[in-house]
Amino acid sequence: MRQQYCPRHLRGRISTDRMSVMHRMRGVTLIELVTTLAIVVILSTFGLTAFADALARQRVQTGLHLISADLAMARNTAIMRRNQVVACPGDTLHRCRSDADWSRGWIVFTDPDGNRQPDAEGDLIRVANAPAGAPASIRLASTRNFVRYQRDGRSAGTNLTINVCHKERLAGQVVVNNLGRVRSAKPKREAACPF
After folding, report:
1. Which residues pair with residue 96 across a beta bridge?
2. Model's pTM, two decimal places?
3. Region 117-129 average pLDDT
4. Quick check: 151 and 85 in contact, CB under 8 A?
5. How many angstroms separate the Cα of 171 from the Cα of each of 67, 95, 133, 185?
6. Which residues of 9-47 are buried (b: 16+ CB within 10 A; e: fewer)?
7. Is the Cβ–Cβ distance between 4 and 16 less than 8 Å?
8. Does residue 13 fall inside a structural domain?
9. Residue 38 included in any domain
């Protein structure tokens, strides 16, 4: 039998047969490997679900913030420039679309002649892209297809409500009242998307 190396302080304490058994038991068994893999799969499944939910909540919050900030900026611009300012769902040519779907982006522009369309490139104040996830999982639609701010910051017409929905559920609303003030709100209880 071949002599195994044994540190000096252990010589005499461990028999050579026992040392050869210890050298053969260096890996993990198949059962240990499968058990560890099953635990990792279960934990990652719960982790990915929680991450997807957190990402969806963040996208909704971003959508609410972006549209609120741009509507407030439109009101402030109307007051500062003493001119009418319109915000509406925009198309790729930087024109107002006729529908009330804000999920593909929106534009903010001065509208001195009142035709609800930007007449020159200089009229555009802001061209906003849709928030991440829109229109696939997050939809933004309103009760009207534009909001016009008067020179004093008031909103012409009735209140405007932009509903932010995620997977057929109402996730939040941006409301512009007749004075032109913008506020956002989340539903107190779960509700279906109104559009």
Report:
1. 90
2. 0.75
3. 91
4. no
5. 14, 28, 14, 9
6. eeeeeeeeeeeeeeeeeeeeeeeeeeeeeeeeeeeeeee
7. yes
8. no
9. yes
Q: Which domain holds residue 106?
A: 30-185
DSSP 8-state assignment for residue 94: S
Q: H or E stretch including 49?
A: helix 30-81
The C-alpha atoms of residue 83 and residue 150 are separated, in whole angstroms, by 7
Is 69 within a domain? Answer: yes
Q: Provide the domain count of the chain.
A: 1
Query: How many other CB atoms sit within 10 Å of the CB of residue 129?
Result: 11
Residue 171 near residue 164, CB atoms below 8 Å: yes
Q: How confident is the model at residue 27, as a pLDDT?
A: 78
Instruction: Please give the order of strands across the beta sheet that includes 85-89.
Output: 124-128, 106-110, 85-89, 147-149
> Tell me: the pLDDT tens digits for 161-187?
999 998 889 999 999 999 999 999 999
pLDDT at 73: 96
Decide: 113 and 119 in contact? Cβ < 8 Å.
yes
Does the residue 3 lie in any domain?
no
Confidence at residue 124, expressed as pLDDT on a 0 to 100 scale: 94
Question: What is the predicted pLDDT for the residue at 157?
Answer: 83
Which pLDDT tens digit goes with each residue over 21-35? 555 566 788 899 999
State the CATH number of the domain containing residue 58.
3.55.40.10
CA distance 98 to 8: 89
Sheet holding 169-176, edge to edge: 138-142, 160-166, 169-176, 182-185
